[in-house]
Amino acid sequence: MDTENLKIQIKTFFGLEPILAEEIKKLGGKNVEIKNRAVNCEGDLGFLYKINYSARTALKILIPVLEFKAFNQHQFYDKLFKVEWEKFMDVDQSFAIDSTVNSETFKHSQFVTLKMKDAIVDYFQDNYKRRPDVDAKRPDIKFHLHIDRELVTISLDSSGDPLFKRGYRKEQGEAPINEVLASGMLQLAGWDGKGNFLDPMCGSGTLLIEAAMIALDLPAQIFRHRFAFQNWSNYDADLFTKIKEFRVNRVKEFTGKIVGYDIDTRMLNAARTNIEAAEMEDIIEVRKQDFFESTKELFPLLMVFNPPYDERIAINDEDFYKKIGDTFKTHYPNTLAWLISSDLEAVKKIGLRPSRKIKLFNGKLETRFLQYEMYEGTKKLHKIENQ
C-alpha cells in the first residue's frame, strides 16, 4: 500500500456531504470530491489518522485496495481467492466484512459476504495451512465490500466501529439523534462556538455535547480508544500520538453558554450522565424547563433542536407545533432557530415560513432541517410570514 498517496473514501449521511468536504479541506485533504453520501480525497497515512480522530461528520473512512468486475458468483470467488491477502492482514488476525450491494447479478449481500469470507479463509488455508478467525464484533481487520452492478470494490475500513460511536453516550432516550447527524446539523446551522446555544428539548444531550465539542474545537474522537488502522502492519504509533497531541493542544477557550431544557426528569438524568462522561459539566447546563413557558435569557442565541415527531415518540398534544411557533414569536425575538422533523404537515402549524429547508435523514426517516428567523417587531414578523 502506497502510504504517501492514499485514495480515501469517507462515508457520511445524505445532506452532510458539503459539510464533510469543508472539514476534510480544513484538515488538509487533497483532490476533495463530493459524492453521494461520501467524500473522496487523497492524503498520506498521517492524514488518515488525523481525519479518523478529528472529522465530525465522517461515519467511516475507507481505503479502496482492489477493484474488478465479476459477472457471476464463481468469478467473484475466483478473483478474490487469487488476492494476496497477507498484504492486508496476518493469518493470526481476526477479520470481518460489511457490505453494500446494488446489483441484479448479486442480489443478496449476506451471500456475497459469505463468499468473500470463504475466499479469504481458503486462501490462507491453501498457502499457510491455517485459517484466520472471523469476528463480527471486534475484528482486528475490517473489510468493506461494495458491489455496483458488476463492479466489485474491496476497501480496508480504517475506522472499525462507526465514527458516530464517540464514546461519551452512556444513556439514551427513546429517539436519540445520531452524533454525526447532530454535529452536521450544528454546522449547517452555522454554530462555531461564538455566542450562546440552546437546545430547548434536549433529551439525552447529544446536540449539547456536540455543540460543546465544536465550541472547544475538541477532536470528535477524543474519547475513543480503538481504531482499525491500529491493527495494520504499517501502523505508526508514534505518528498517531503526535497527531493526537497536536489536535488536543489546539483546544480553544469558550466564553458563551450551552444550555439544555427538558420536561422529562429521566431524560435530564440521562443527559447529565452523558455530559459527565464527556467531561463537560462546567460547559453545559441542563435544567427542567418547559420550552413553551420559557423566555429568552441568552444574547446572542442560536437554537437547534430535535422535537418529538409521531413516528418515534408519540405526541399527545395536537397543538404541539403551533405552541413551538407561538413560543418563537412571543418569547424569542432576534433569534435564529433550527429544528428537524419528519412530520412535514405538522411543521406547517408553526405558522412561520422557514427561511431555509434542508433534506436530511434521521435513521430511515426522511426529514427536513428548518431554519426560522425571529425578528423583533410585528412588521418584520409579518414580512417573514408572507414571503
From TrEMBL:
Keywords linked to the UniProt accession: Methyltransferase, RNA-binding, Transferase
**A Pfam family that the UniProt record links to this protein:** UPF0020
Q: Known InterPro entries for this protein?
A: RlmKL-like_Mtase (IPR000241), RlmKL-like_Mtase_CS (IPR053943), RlmL_1st (IPR054170), SAM-dependent_MTases_sf (IPR029063), THUMP_dom (IPR004114)
Taking every annotated instance into account, which residue ranges of this chain make up the domain THUMP? 47-158
- Which residues constitute the signal peptide according to the record? none
Molecular function GO terms recorded? RNA binding; rRNA (guanine-N2-)-methyltransferase activity; rRNA (guanine-N7-)-methyltransferase activity
Q: What is this protein called?
A: DNA methylase
What organism is recorded for this protein?
A: Chryseobacterium soli
